[in-house]
Amino acid sequence: MNTLKLRPLIENFQAASEAPKKEWTSEAKKSALENIGCYNEYAQHLHREQSLMEIAHKLSEIVKNAEELALHETEKSSTDGKHWFDEQTVRKNFANMTKAIQEFNKYAKEAHILEQRMQATYEDIGHLLERYYEVKNLQEGQSAVSKIAK
Questions:
Q1: What percentage of residues in the chain have a pLDDT greater than 90?
Q2: Overall pTM > 0.70
Q3: CB atoms < 10 A from the CB of 56, how many?
Q4: Does residue 18 lie within any of the structural domains?
Q5: Domain residues for 108?
């Protein structure tokens, strides 16, 4: 039976905690503050102009209209004696497409929920950053200013 030795674990923990601290040059500080100042730029990417739910709704409408038109054309061609599409094949294909749209809608809802969580977490991070730094608005275009050194 293997026994676990605590001494190597403690020594590794102590060595890790005694790791040398990073020295911050004025250039590194300036670069870090510029990066922190750009935090609000990412809000644009999280808040989309068109949500996945809207896209899913539009796609559902497209499929519904396409199915109705295809069935109308199938019925019309069968009365004219011209068989462009077999009605059963059209119904079967659109049944599969309807299943795919339902699956897309399900994934869009899940993604929407995750997007909302991500936005809330993003805002939480921003509030925490603002405790220590003045994060500038996008219009101001400046780097962050440390509140710690004041």
A1: 27
A2: no
A3: 20
A4: no
A5: 26-146
